Amino acid sequence: MAERGKIKILQLITRSDWTGAQKVLYSIVYGLKKYYPDQFEVEVACGPENGQLVEELKKINVKVHVIPDLVREISPVKDLRAYFQIKRLIKDGKYDVVHCHSSKAGFLGRIAAKRAGVKNVIYTVHGWWGIEQYRGLKRKLLILAERFAAKFCDKIVLLCHRELLKAKEWNIGKDSQYVIIPNALIPQPPASRGKLRKELGIPENTKIVGNVARLDPQKNPLRFLEVAELVLKERDDVVFVWIGGSIVDDSYGKLVQKWLDEHPDVAKKVYFLPFRKDAVELMADFDVFLLTSDSEGMPLVVLEALNQGVPVVSTDVGCVGEMIDSVYSKKEDLALNLLKILNENDYVSHRYKEIYDRFIENHISIYRK
C-alpha cells in the first residue's frame, strides 16, 4: 500500500484519445483526486499515442505511464511485449488495485495484474461492441477470450442491466463478479448558446438536430440522414449537424457522400463537422440530440446532451433505454418522436452532481475491497 496508508490504484487503457472510455477513466481519476486525495493515490497507463487524455491528466498532476507496445490492433509480437511491459510496471509500482478499461488493455492487463500478485483487479466493460460487431467464428473467439480473461479479475463493472444480461448470456464471468455502475459526467454548468449558430450562419428561427460521433458504421450516419429526410418532408425549418467526422477525410464518408449526392434536397440541410474539442459547447445549440447508433454501451454524449438541457431521441441500443424514457427501433418512429419534441418545444434540464457523487462512491466501494 502507498505511503500514509493510501490505496494505490493503476488505471489502464489502450488508447489515450478523448472518447467515451477515456472520459470515464478521467472522471474516476478526477473524483478521486478532488474528493479523496488523502485516501487514494492514482496513476494511469496507456498506449504510445499522446492523445488528449494525457493532456487532461497532466493538468491535474496525474502520473501517466506509456506502454510502448500497447496498441489497439492485434499484433502477436507487440501484444506479448505489451503484456510483459504492463506486468513489469505493475510489479515496480506495487499497486493495490489495477482497474482496466477497453478490450486490449482489459485482456492483457487483467492477466498481467493477477500474475503480478495484485489482490484487487477490476475490469470495466464500456459496451460489448468489440464482440457485437462480428459474427460467426470471430465472435465466438472473442467471447472465449473474454471468458478466459474474466478468470483473472475480481470485479467486472457493467454500465447497465442490459449489458449484464449479455455477459450472462455469453457466460462471461460469474454473478459474484458483476457490479453495475452507470457512467456519470463531471458536473459542468451548461455552455452558452450561440457558438454553433454563429459558425454555420444558422438563424435563430431554424431548429438544429445534431449528433456527436465518429463517422463509422456503428454510429450509422446513414440512418441519421434517413431520419433527416423524413423530418424535412414535414417541416423545412430544421437543419441537421453531425460533429465528429468529415465526409472528406473518413473512409466511411464515401458512403455518406454518395447518399447526399443522391438526395440533394436533404444535403442542403445537413452539415458534417470534423472532431471538435469544443463539441459540448457546440451541442448547446442543438434543439434535439439524435443518436442513430447500431450499438453502444452507455454513451457519455447522451449525458452531455442532457446536461446541456437538450432532449434526446435515440435508437434502442446499449444502456440508453435506462438513461431516457423512450427509445426506438425504426427510423419512422425516430422521426415522429423528433418532430413531436420540435413541435412542443419541450426542453428538460438535468443536474448531475448527485449522479456523479454516486458514481465515485460506487467505484470507491470496489477499490476498498
TrEMBL record:
Lineage: Bacteria, Thermotogati, Thermotogota, Thermotogae, Thermotogales
InterPro entries reported for this sequence: Glyco_trans_1, Glyco_trans_4-like_N
Any Pfam family: Glycos_transf_1
Coiled coil: none
Protein name, entry field: Glycosyl transferase group 1
Any one GO MF annotation of this record: glycosyltransferase activity
Domain Glycosyltransferase subfamily 4-like N-terminal per the UniProt entry, residue ranges: 22-183
Keyword list, A-Z: Transferase
Domain Glycosyl transferase family: 194-328
